[in-house]
Amino acid sequence: MSGEVPTASRESRVQLGQMLIIGGIAAALGVALALLIDWFPVAASEEAGPIDTLWDVLLIVSVPIFVLVTTIVLYSATRFRMRPGEELMDGPPIHGNTKLEVIWTAIPAILLVALCTYAYVVLVDIEKAEANTMEVRVVGEQFTWTFFYPGQDGEEVASPQLYLPAETPVRFTVQSKDVIHDFWVPAFRMKIDAVPGIDTELRATTTDRLGEFPVVCAELCGLGHSTMRQSAHVVSQQDFDGWLEELRAGGGDAAGGGEPEAAGSTDGEELFTSAATPAACGSCHTLAAAGTNGTTGPNLDEVVPPLDEAQIRESITDPDAEVAEGFSPGLMPRYGESLSEEQVDALVEYLMEVSGK
Ligand code: CUA
Fold this sequence. Notes:
Elements: H1 5-36, H2 48-79, H3 98-127, E1 134-141, E2 144-150, E3 156-159, E4 162-165, E5 169-176, E6 181-185, E7 190-194, E8 200-205, E9 211-217, E10 229-235, H4 237-248, H5 268-273, E11 286-287, E12 292-293, H6 300-303, H7 309-317, H8 341-354
Parallel strand pairs: 1-5, 4-10
Antiparallel strand pairs: 1-2, 2-3, 5-8, 6-7, 6-9, 9-10, 11-12
The structure holds dinuclear copper ion.
């Protein structure tokens, strides 16, 4: 018996060495692969940097552990599997190993505490209040966002699109009119639930990256959840001031940079078909003349023709007054609140025209 021990322990040391080498190589490949993947959309906020770094650190720490454990499990299952003729053999008895147990408890505990501390420090940093913060109130409802800015006379002004000046800290007060939504601008990396009855808060600081970034709802909130998408326009301070001035003046035409802007369109067909407008009817409704085939709401080729002008108008501004069979009330937002009067007129006229009136 005693003569076999050196051979057996040498063999098991070789096996352990093989396991660790294979695991080490696999872990290095796993980390390299994880860091090569382009996980995030463009970054357009100051918060994006620390968040993306946090993500990379989490990958660097967790991928090797996952890969190492998986590799050792696969190695062991292959290497130490039962061979023919061993069916009735029993393995060597295993007793507790206090040293091993202390190690495998202590290492994960230290890792978890360290990573939680780091993540908490990042969270405090990205949520801290900044001087000269701009205030925007965000209201979610099925299935649209409305953004409120301070007006001149203490009244708020509403916009269907989010405009923000570059390099400015913004505090969003987030609310919901109906169910739980989630206000998310992936390019800012920040998101927060919009909960009926309470105000939630989100901070983000825009960078010098100008452009249009998606605003999405990140909480399943009903049939039209996937259509609850708008845009965050980050523009120069000058363009922003101009846009806000137009919005305050009540122009449905508020635009950044003086360019024609879909959000303020008064073209009925564009309002119906373009997802960049606050109406975007086609994303939920089928209408042959517009070439749209949404099925979230009633097929307008069927329901519009019998309606007169006043009924068409009502179905846009107060959709729950009369709901088509098979559809639930509350599904369609009251567009009288997010569209200008000219835009509602344009849509009514367009629908009258294509249904042959
Ligand atoms: Cu609102 Cu999903």
